[in-house]
Write a structure and sequence with these properties.
This protein is of the alpha+beta class and 187 residues long. It folds into two domains: 64 residues, lambda repressor-like DNA-binding domains (434 Repressor (Amino-terminal Domain)), CATH 1.10.260.40; 103 residues, Jelly Rolls. Helices cover 25% and strands 29% of the residues. The strands form two sheets. A six-stranded antiparallel β-sheet has the order 1-2-3-10-5-8, with no helix packed on it. A four-stranded antiparallel β-sheet has the order 4-9-6-7. α2 packs across α3. The protein is globular. 33% of the residues are buried.
Length: 187
């Protein structure tokens, strides 16, 4: 999936600690706001554990930041081209869910390419969606997207505009990986 300049676990650890400290939050403060245990946050910050997609969703929601900010691997100069080999890629160690940050840094529109393995379910709290507008465009496979109480069955080529922030779950009901793009802008 391309080489990274920095180890993804260390990059996430650095970003997480920087976001927490910039708010002068203790580990306990972040744990209370995110619903992630203090011990887990500490392990992540020390690069002793790679967080799951669900944990990163909770942490991004607590910070009021897009998940892509937490996954930013390095601060870079304003660029207009994001070459494929330099696009940050993160894989959930628990599920194999993989996301690639496609857009150049500091872009107003963020494009995220996602590969969701067969039968994998990834939940996110409403807080992860509170600060952005999102669309999901399915490139291949099928995606069941639970948005609050509404279930959307999406197939190749379908594009969904998300509504008001709600607890959401991405689920691949198929036997092959699903590939989709998430396009987002800040509210």
């Amino acid at each position: 999936m391309g080489q990274m300049e920095q180890d993804p676990v260390q990059a996430i650890a650095k970003r997480l600690k920087m976001e927490r400290e910039s708010r002068t939050w203790s580990l306990a403060d972040l744990a209370e706001r995110s619903g992630v245990s203090k011990a887990m946050i500490s392990k992540i910050e020390r690069s002793e554990a790679s967080p799951t997609a669900t944990v990163l969703g909770r942490l991004s929601g607590a910070f009021g930041l897009p998940l892509s900010v937490l996954l930013a691997l390095a601060e870079r100069e304003q660029e207009r081209v994001a070459s494929h080999r330099e696009q940050p890629v993160w894989t959930d160690p628990e599920t194999g869910y993989t996301r690639r940050a496609v857009s150049p840094p500091n872009s107003v529109l963020e494009l995220i390419e996602v590969f969701l393995p067969a039968h994998v379910r990834v939940p996110y709290p409403a807080s992860a969606f509170a600060f952005q507008h999102q669309q999901i465009w399915v490139l291949s496979g099928r995606l069941d997207f639970q948005e609050g109480t509404v279930l959307h069955h999406l197939s190749e080529g379908d594009c969904l505009l998300l509504g008001s922030p709600a607890d959401c779950t991405f689920f691949n009901p198929g036997t092959e990986p699903t590939r989709y793009v998430v396009a987002l802008t800040r509210r």
